[in-house]
Amino acid sequence: MENPADKRPNRSIDDLLKVMAALRDPKSGCPWDLEQSFETIAPYTLEEAYEVADAIERGNMADLKEELGDLLLQVVFHSQMAKEDGQFDFSDVVASICDKMIRRHPHVFATEDAETSQHVARNWESIKETEKAAKRDANEPAHILDDVPVNLPALTQAVKLQKKAARVGFDWPKVENVLEKLREETDELLVEIRNETMDQQAAFEEFGDLLFVYANFARHLQIDPEAALRSANMKFRRRFRRIEEILHAQSSSTDEATLEDMDALWTKAKFEEKSA
């Protein structure tokens, strides 16, 4: 049987650049694409990055191929808009990342040695700091946390902030110290929620502090808290779907079942999953 892929025309990055330029053509382009700006496209860029992560987590290579294409389109879209503004184009983006990779891997492209991934990471950070210093105004003081993007997912941002602070010694020496801080923050939150006249803003602050310490706990355990929470979310999806399936087989539904019914089915779904 003939493989349909054999009939597919060969495509290159140049073809994608031409497609994007056509979509943004002022006379014959797509009205929606022409209305977009860096600000309106940015949320789609973030969304596509998450779609890539989701495909990887599900181990679906077909979806990963498609999602990587969607993510690449975001880079091309931003590059086309920058080209129209006379700022830079896609070739500048490629040149920039190639130069950076060569510069930050002297153990591959130069004469330095790095026998472990930890050594590579230290070199990377050192070179990165040198690059930042070269860009910074001589009169502007250096702030350790400034290069942690404020629009990162909150848990990821928390870990990055903590890692930066830890490099200059601002860190708990043992994971047990983090556990003690967790108990302290939990107790402070309990004080707020047990108050008859609970201060919602105070509870908000204390809950944020608690999550921040949980992120630090994950860092000390060398666990990615975003990945761990995504895994827990998927587990919840699977088990709750199983509750719905069992109820449907019993000609019932979640609207008819009691909390006790669903809790028992949750335990059953959990047992089935662990026994599989």
Which terms summarize this structure?
276 residues; 3 domains; 12 helices; Helix Hairpins; globular; single chain; mainly alpha
Task: Outline the structure in words.
This protein has 276 residues and is mostly helical. The protein has three domains: 4-103, Orthogonal Bundle (Helix Hairpins), CATH 1.10.287.1080; 143-223, MazG-like (Helix Hairpins, Orthogonal Bundle); 227-275, no CATH class. It has helices at 13-23, 31-35, 38-58, 61-84, 90-103, 106-109, 117-135, 154-167, 175-193, 200-220, 225-249, 259-275. The protein starts with 12 loop residues before the first helix and ends with a helix.
Brief characterization of the structure:
The protein has 276 residues and is mainly alpha-helical.
Please compute the radius of gyration using only Cα atoms.
25 Å
Oligomer: single chain
Query: What percent of the residues sit in helical stretches (DSSP H or I)?
Result: over 70%
Which structural class should the secondary elements be placed in?
mainly alpha
Quickly give the CATH architecture of the largest domain: Orthogonal Bundle
Strand fraction equals: under 5%
Stretches where pLDDT is under 50 for at least 5 consecutive residues are: none
DSSP strand count: 0
Q: Any idea of the CATH class of the largest domain?
A: Mainly Alpha
Shape: globular
Task: Enter the CATH topology name of the largest domain.
Answer: Helix Hairpins
Tell me about the largest β-sheet: none
What is the total number of structural domains? Answer: 3
Mean pLDDT: 91
Q: Would you list the SSEs in sequence order as H and E? A: HHHHHHHHHHHH
CATH superfamily of the largest domain: MazG-like
Number of H/I helices: 12
Ends: how far apart? 37 Å
